[in-house]
Write a structure and sequence with these properties.
This protein is of the alpha/beta class. It has two domains: about 10-255 and about 465-480, Aldehyde Dehydrogenase, Chain A, domain 1; about 260-445, 3-Layer(aba) Sandwich (Aldehyde Dehydrogenase, Chain A, domain 2). Helices cover about 35% and strands about 20% of the residues. The protein contains twelve helices and 24 strands. Strands 15-18-19-14-13-21-22 form a seven-stranded mixed beta sheet, with helices on both faces. Strands 10-9-8-11-12 form a five-stranded parallel beta sheet, sandwiched between helices. It is globular, with a radius of gyration of 24 Å. The chain binds nicotinamide-adenine-dinucleotide (NAD). Nicotinamide-adenine-dinucleotide binds near residues 153, 161 and 254.
């Protein structure tokens, strides 16, 4: 693994200027914690205030710039992402430990978002012309930007998720302060360097680094109109609480999941096994949409469990820069400990059948955060937190169900509702799950992972507050205005209201 590169110098970007480098915290490679990817400044309260002030100052000119001209900056950004795809993917693999093939796919997803934004710059989602009940009047529904947008993102999609938010925000005329995860600051910084190279005017996108305390300073600033957050439920809830005293504050929170694959008794068997394996273990189970519950019809479960475990045993977790591995390490030691606590909880629970006892695993480098798959079988039960909380690692339960009603009941018996996959050949049954389950993204005869930027990306319950990310975010980063023009020479009012002044 080509990890021995010099550490990146972390800087903040405020009003188009890069701060001198500072070394307040380190970004370490999850594949080998002795390797420093970069050293970064933890933004101070003054620097956070300066970043918000810079975004505020840049806002009027950016808002007045033609939407089409704003979109054209994204065309330049797309060319730069294409030029640097491999470098970005390698940096991502080193910094967050995802396999290089997945990292390339994520860069392509970010590119698609940028291309989408460029494309819709000339399209009609800008607004509508609508009729008025007075023939002489034309009414317009127009979207206007809010102002300053704070973008706070997680480590697991450090390139695509920020672009899902920054793309629509900047296209619509908002300016932004971006705080990437403290686990992936180098990828965040690289993204802002590309924005700058693409020529986005100073202050339209500002970068601050740091942990949750820095994020909280940003959220507390009343000059921030919109907070676009993706991350855990706990932090999303905190951000909504902090914003509650600001009635004109919009918060879009995309949060965790406790996703499931439902395998019906008419499923294509091999497809069902593959869908379960990919859903549970791709990205080492660290996607918001990863499945940690596979609900299998009781008739199939013995056979399914055998094939599922045999396949899981063959998965190879290793060097993120080697595309032949299925997946890489987990993000850090704290994540390892958290996942291992859930594993231990299951081991100690009576009535649970352990099928594959995984956990911390030796990696190529002694300091690597590698974990192997942990698989167990249990009836649905409410006394085991691992079955109801987000584990975010290679940890999965196989759970039997007797009929479709029971599968729905088990599926919905968690506080989250992000993604769902149904494996069946029966269209009536598929429709039943579509209508009865709680989720934001549903898949049929597929894994429950995999997003495309033109679709809404979001969930319900603890997974999201109803403002899906990616293309759908245009709705959040703008507010609708009504604009009515009278083409007549006298005033006529709607609803028969008299315009006479006696
Ligand atoms: P996290 O919630 O720990 O951190 C996310 C971001 O919030 C980071 O930038 C962090 O510094 C910041 N933050 C932490 N405390 C804060 C506070 N008090 N105020 C403001 N900002 C604060 O999440 P993570 O560990 O980086 O990512 C994993 C989580 O993200 C999982 O729960 C996963 O399901 C979720 N996720 C959700 C989606 C989605 O679209 N629904 C996508 C990817 C990841």
């Amino acid at each position: 693994m080509a990890l021995l590169l010099p550490p990146i110098h972390g800087r903040l970007a405020i009003a188009g200027e890069w701060s001198p480098p500072r070394e307040d915290f380190e970004s370490l490679s999850p594949a080998d914690r002795s390797q420093v990817v970069g050293r970064f400044p933890q933004a101070t309260a003054e620097e956070v205030r300066a970043a918000v002030a810079a975004a505020r100052q840049a806002y009027p000119a950016w808002r007045r710039t033609s939407r089409i001209v704003r979109a054209e900056y994204f065309d330049r950004l797309a060319q730069l992402i294409k030029r640097d795809t491999e470098a970005i993917a390698e940096l991502m693999a080193r910094e967050c430990g995802k396999n290089i093939a997945e990292c390339r796919a994520e860069v392509v997803e970010g590119l698609h978002m940028v291309q989408y934004v460029f494309g819709v710059g000339r399209q009609g989602i800008y607004g509508d012309v609508v009729a008025s009940e007075i023939a002489e009047k034309d009414s317009y529904v127009r979207r206007k930007p809010w102002g300053v947008v704070a973008v706070i993102t997680p480590w697991n999609f450090p390139f695509a998720v920020p672009l899902w938010m920054l793309g629509p925000s900047l296209l619509e005329g908002n300016t932004a302060v971006f705080k990437p995860s403290e686990d992936t600051p180098a990828v965040g910084q690289k993204l802002v360097e590309l924005f700058q190279e693409a020529g986005f005017p100073p202050g339209t996108i500002n970068l601050i680094h740091g942990d949750g305390a820095v994020g909280e300073l940003l959220v507390r600033d009343p000059r921030v109109n919109v907070v676009l957050f993706t991350g855990s439920y706990e932090v999303g809830k905190r951000i909504q609480e902090l914003s509650a005293g600001m009635p004109d504050r919009i918060v879009a929170a995309e949060m965790g999941g406790k996703n499931a694959v439902i395998v019906c008794d008419d499923a294509r068997f091999e497809l069902a096994v593959n869908a379960g394996i990919i859903s549970a273990f791709k990205t080492t189970g660290q996607r918001c949409v990863s499945a940690s519950r596979i609900l299998v019809h009781e008739k199939l479960l013995d056979h399914y469990a055998e094939a599922f475990v045999a396949t899981a045993r063959r998965l190879r977790f290793g060097d993120p820069l080697d595309a032949t591995y299925f997946a890489g390490p987990v993000i850090n030691q704290a994540a390892m400990q958290k996942i291992e606590q859930y594993n231990a909880q299951v081991r100690q629970t009576a009535g649970v059948q352990l099928l594959l006892d995984g956990g911390p695993a030796p990696g190529i480098h002694p300091g690597g955060c590698y974990m192997s798959p942990f698989i167990y079988r249990t009836e649905w039960r409410t006394d085991l937190p691992a079955l109801r909380e987000e584990v975010f690692g290679p940890h999965v339960a196989l759970i039997p169900f007797r009929d479709d009603e029971e599968a729905v009941r088990i599926h919905n018996d968690v506080d989250y509702g992000l993604s769902l996959a149904v494996i069946s050949e029966n269209y009536r049954r598929i429709r039943f799950f579509r209508d009865e389950c709680d989720y934001g993204m549903g898949y049929v005869n597929l894994p429950c992972i995999g997003a495309e930027v033109h679709l809404p990306f979001g969930g319900v319950k603890k997974s999201g507050n109803g403002h899906p990310s990616a293309a759908g975010l245009v709705e959040v980063v703008t507010h609708k205005t009504a604009w009515t023009i009278n083409h007549g020479t006298e005033i006529k009012m709607a609803q028969g209201l008299s315009a006479r002044i006696d």
